[in-house]
RNA sequence: GGGAGCUUAGCUCAGCUGGGAGAGCACCUGCCUUACAAGCAGGGGGUCGUAGGUUCGAGCCCUACAGUUCCCACCA
């Protein structure tokens, strides 16, 4: 015994975590030094927004990355986990605008320069918060390489890519229908629009045909856009309207003459079959307008109020204008009818405001040529999605991709490196502001006011963070990265864009695997969200249960790509596991001698139980490593859990107790050694998942390592395969379980010792059972263990159990009720009969014997034999009881 | 309209290439046994959504259907 006896009986994460993390930091374990003798293993973090607070999604995502990184580091790779943050243009700008409005200020009040100054201050103040939170969950990132999307180097990368794509004509500026968010006051990309089902109306409006009494009725969900109508379209094959094609209608309220045109776009079956065409406010109408060379009249301002083109409705908000228009039309008798209509309305993914499709001059990325190789890289397996089904989602998006609107009417972000000559209108795309216009030599040049979509810079993250466009050592060594870990909801925004950007700019894939996980939901299965207030704060969970427990709860029992519900109960049981390990370790340590030294351990002195657990550990190492290699982290963790709790704690520790308690026992050092060895290796296997407690325990064990973080990952070793000992221990454990079983059934607690008689004809089994005597005594309440080859002298009033190969008799004297015992055995007999029948059924099936693999057939035959023997023994026992 | 996932014990979920259904929690019965009551020992509980099919053999593969969740498209 030693000091470890006095260690707390419960594991206290607070005493361990921060101290341990600091130690790792100080030792520089997180830092990756390029080592050409090693293979690199790289992960770039999905950069959290500087506005962000750690939520469960981050906790899961980063735990998964940390598991992979820690595992690979132990395997001897030169691992780099590169961290950083994203400037998150819209989200951050919104925060700053909000803060300013509390001071009664607007962006325009203070101007661009002052605004950016504030933004950088804000970043300085809050940008590091999420990074500190990542440290709390144990992330082993190389903080010396931390990057920010608006760092100088990364901004260079952005400009470089913009210029390059512009010169290749893959970036262009054009006037098109874009998604406009009136609240954020910026355009957003298609991917940033979320559709919501709204209960709306379908207003049928009568447009008078010029020089006639006729009307043509159009149906719309957005009547306010009619102010910008420049045509009415019908299907050319629609006989109802054939005679009207080419005629003119008077646009109500505006009294403008607009033509009736024919276009295939119109669906005869839908609505009235006649469509008002508003090229400046609808993407389809825009296309129709282009085909028919229609005028584009934009009737709305950027804040979604009506503009001067809206006539009497100028100044109205879009919805007020809508109400007034309906009212006015009704008064004019031009409102044909109002139908209920549920339809999907696009909203801004940041602020949830209904977006307005508006014609606007913006910058776009021409996507088709970039999408093509990006599809190819996944198709040919250069990049693999895990699980594979997500590649379908990716194809589906990439194959139907539209051009990407990248300009934003925001200030916080990378300003577009395009300059316009105020004299001749020339556009110059350049990293630096040109002195003179190359065309007219004017010096009146101004830079484009807009910034780029945040995702434009994050698309470059896997190489911009490594130094690109400079040709750095880091870039050469660590690129391409190995795996990207993210949730499925970000495949379009980010993963897809990184893929084509990596291929386009680096000529190589940005990563080899995309490891996709699901969303963490609340206990009711709802998505956690700020607005619902159902989010569970990971930091609170850490505070209450420890980081390791949180990590365990997030990873165990979950399979890749699937959503999961988060429950405190699960964290509790994870915490219990941590505690279990803690106490197992306490036990091991308090049974060490003063200065444990295992240099004199003799493998020949290993007992059956030692070889059994070593063999089991060996198998575990193999399986866990295989599972992790396939990203089956939940399965791997489950196996470690079961090994530690069920095999190591519940069995092995119980097995070795007598050897430890007896200081004279000659294999006591071997037991200590095996405890140390198995625990140390279990901790290694567990370390990627539960880094803190494993480090703490490992530090107390006898090892050559200064930290488990940099210890060598265990490897499968043929030398530790002890099949025969595994079988023997299986027999002993089966026997103990059976005896406990009987005793529980008979209400005889293990604390009441009873004699144990084993009957077995098999020499090896006899020896095994004899060797197990002390175990039977300790774990099955045996007062004495007798092993014999026949049934001579077995008392009639003994309770019996037949296990594979051996008969167990427990003479319980007056405690036994013979009638009850017969009943029990009859039941047993019936069960065995059922098993025999099942095996027979298979073996008598010609199809089975002809087609099943030999190993399966042999297995079945062996089972049948086994059950037949057991059956016979039960029968015999019954016969003797009935006498 | 197109696509994907899910449906397994009371609850939450695992189940790897098809070869006798598992865990955690909950529940029941014993135990404060000198590592751990956040524990130990034992136990009950499932015709694996339904119906077909392939196969010697299906929770797993195929088809249809039902329920459910999500993604994409966006017919004005």
Shape: elongated
Could you tell me the number of beta strands?
29
Distance between the termini: 55 Å
Radius of gyration: 37 Å
The major β-sheet equals: 4 strands, antiparallel
The structure class reads: alpha/beta
Number of helices: 27
Strand content: 15-25%
How would you write the strand order of the largest sheet?
A: 6-5-14-16
Task: Walk me through the structure.
The mean pLDDT is 94. A four-stranded antiparallel β-sheet has the order 6-5-14-16. A four-stranded mixed β-sheet has the order 10-11-9-12, with helices on one face. The two termini are 55 Å apart. It is an alpha/beta fold. Strand 5 (171-181) and strand 6 form a beta hairpin. Helices cover 44% and strands 18% of the residues. It is built from 27 helices and 29 strands. It is elongated. The chain binds one RNA strand of 76 nucleotides through strand 8, strand 12, helix 7, strand 13 and helix 10.
Topology at a glance:
Layout: H1 17-27, E1 40-44, H2 56-74, E2 78-82, E3 84-85, H3 89-102, H4 107-126, H5 129-136, E4 147-148, H6 152-167, E5 171-181, E6 186-188, E7 193-208, E8 215-220, E9 231-234, E10 248-251, E11 256-262, E12 274-277, H7 283-292, H8 318-331, E13 335-348, E14 356-365, H9 368-379, E15 384-386, H10 389-399, E16 404-405, E17 407-408, E18 418-421, E19 427-429, E20 445-447, E21 451-452, H11 454-458, H12 461-464, H13 473-478, E22 481-487, H14 491-506, E23 511-517, E24 520-521, H15 538-545, H16 547-555, E25 564-565, H17 568-590, H18 608-629, H19 633-661, H20 668-686, H21 691-700, H22 723-745, E26 754-759, H23 763-771, H24 773-780, E27 782-788, E28 798-803, E29 806-811, H25 818-843, H26 846-851, H27 854-882
Parallel strand pairs: 1-2, 3-4, 9-11, 15-23, 22-23, 24-25, 26-27
Antiparallel strand pairs: 5-6, 5-14, 7-8, 7-13, 9-12, 10-11, 14-16, 17-21, 18-19, 18-20, 26-29, 28-29
Helix pairs in contact: 2-16, 3-4, 9-10, 9-14, 15-16, 16-17, 17-19, 18-19, 18-20, 18-22, 19-20, 20-21, 22-24, 25-27
The chain binds one RNA strand of 76 nucleotides through strand 8, strand 12, helix 7, strand 13 and helix 10.
């Amino acid at each position: 015994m030693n000091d470890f006896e006095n260690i707390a009986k419960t594991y206290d994460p607070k005493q361990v975590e921060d101290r341990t993390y600091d130690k790792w930091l100080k030792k520089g374990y997180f830092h990756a030094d390029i080592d050409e003798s090693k293979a690199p293993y790289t992960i770039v973090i999905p950069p959290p927004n500087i506005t962000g607070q750690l939520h469960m999604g981050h906790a899961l995502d980063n735990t998964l990355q940390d598991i992979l990184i820690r595992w690979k580091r132990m395997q001897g790779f030169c691992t780099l986990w590169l961290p950083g943050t994203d400037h998150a243009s819209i989200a951050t700008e919104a925060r700053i605008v909000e803060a300013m409005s509390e001071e009664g200020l607007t962006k325009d009040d203070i101007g661009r320069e002052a605004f950016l100054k504030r933004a950088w201050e804000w970043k300085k103040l809050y940008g590091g918060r999420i990074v500190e939170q990542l440290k709390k969950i144990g992330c082993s990132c190389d903080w010396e390489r931390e990057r920010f999307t608006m760092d100088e180097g990364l901004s260079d990368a952005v400009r470089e890519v913009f210029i390059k794509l512009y010169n290749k004509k893959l970036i262009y500026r054009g006037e098109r229908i874009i998604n406009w968010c009136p609240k954020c006051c910026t355009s957003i990309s298609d991917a940033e629009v979320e559709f919501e089902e709204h209960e709306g109306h379908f207003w049928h409006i009568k447009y008078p045909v010029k020089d006639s009494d006729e009307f043509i009725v159009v149906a719309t969900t957005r009547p306010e856009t009619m102010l910008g109508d420049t045509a009415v379209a019908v299907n050319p094959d629609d006989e109802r309207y054939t005679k009207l094609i080419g005629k003119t209608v008077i646009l109500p309220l505006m009294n403008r003459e607009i033509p009736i045109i024919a276009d295939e776009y119109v669906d005869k079956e839908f609505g009235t079959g006649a469509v008002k065409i508003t090229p400046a406010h609808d993407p389809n109408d825009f296309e129709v307008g282009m085909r028919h060379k229609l005028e584009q009249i934009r009737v709305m301002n950027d804040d979604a109020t009506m503009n001067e083109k809206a006539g009497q409705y100028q100044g109205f908000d879009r919805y007020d204008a809508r109400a007034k228009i309906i009212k006015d039309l009704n008064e004019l008798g031009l409102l044909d009818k109002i139908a209920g209509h549920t339809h999907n309305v696009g909203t801004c993914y940041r602020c949830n405001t209904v977006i307005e499709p508006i014609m606007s001059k913006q910058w776009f990325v021409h996507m088709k040529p970039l999408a093509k190789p990006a599809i190819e890289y996944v198709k040919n397996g250069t990049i693999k999605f895990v699980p594979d089904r997500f590649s379908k989602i990716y194809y589906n998006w990439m194959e139907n991709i539209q051009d990407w609107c990248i300009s934003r009417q925001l200030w916080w972000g990378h300003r577009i490196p395009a300059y316009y000559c105020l004299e001749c209108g020339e556009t110059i795309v350049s990293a630096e502001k040109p002195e003179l216009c190359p065309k007219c030599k004017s010096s009146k040049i101004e830079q484009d006011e807009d910034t780029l979509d945040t995702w434009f810079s994050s698309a470059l993250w896997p190489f911009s963070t490594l130094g690109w466009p400079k040709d750095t050592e880091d870039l050469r060594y660590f690129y391409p990265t190995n795996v990207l870990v993210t949730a499925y909801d970000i495949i379009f925004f980010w993963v897809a864009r990184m893929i084509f950007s990596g291929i386009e700019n680096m000529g190589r894939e940005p990563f080899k695997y995309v490891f996709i996980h699901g969303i963490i939901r609340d206990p009711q299965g709802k998505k956690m969200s700020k607005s619902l207030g159902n989010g569970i704060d990971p930091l609170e969970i850490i505070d209450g249960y420890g980081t390791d427990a949180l990590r365990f709860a997030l990873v165990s029992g979950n399979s890749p790509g699937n959503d999961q519900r988060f429950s405190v109960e699960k964290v509790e049981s994870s915490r219990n596991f941590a505690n279990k390990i803690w106490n197992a370790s306490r036990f091991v340590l308090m049974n060490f001698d003063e200065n444990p030294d295992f240099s004199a351990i003799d493998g020949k002195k290993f007992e059956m139980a030692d070889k059994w657990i070593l063999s089991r550990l060996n198998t575990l190492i193999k399986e866990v490593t295989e599972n992790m290699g396939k990203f089956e982290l939940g399965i791997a963790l489950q196996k470690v859990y079961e090994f530690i709790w069920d095999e190591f704690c519940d069995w092995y520790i119980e097995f070795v107790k007598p050897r430890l308690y007896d200081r004279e026992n000659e294999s006591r050092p071997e037991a200590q050694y095996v405890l140390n060895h198995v625990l140390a290796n279990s901790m290694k296997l567990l370390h990627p998942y539960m880094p803190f407690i494993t480090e703490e325990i490992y530090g107390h064990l006898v090892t050559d390592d200064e930290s488990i973080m940099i210890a060598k990952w265990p490897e499968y070793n043929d030398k530790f395969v002890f099949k025969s000992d595994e079988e023997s221990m299986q027999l002993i454990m089966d026997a103990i379980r059976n005896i406990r079983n009987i005793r529980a059934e008979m209400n005889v607690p293990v604390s009441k010792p009873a004699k144990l008689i084993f009957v077995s004809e098999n020499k090896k089994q006899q020896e095994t059972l004899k060797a197990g005597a002390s175990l039977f005594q300790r774990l099955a309440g045996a007062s004495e263990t007798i092993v014999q080859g026949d049934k001579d002298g077995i008392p009639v009033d003994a309770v019996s159990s037949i296990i594979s190969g051996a008969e167990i008799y427990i003479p319980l004297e007056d405690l036994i009720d013979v009638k009850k015992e017969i009943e029990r055995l009859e039941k047993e007999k019936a069960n065995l009969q059922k098993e025999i029948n099942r095996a027979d059924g298979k073996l008598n099936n010609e199809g089975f014997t002809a087609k099943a693999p030999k190993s399966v057939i042999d297995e079945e035959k062996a089972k049948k034999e086994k059950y037949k023997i057991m059956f016979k023994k039960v029968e015999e026992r019954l016969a003797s009881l009935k006498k």
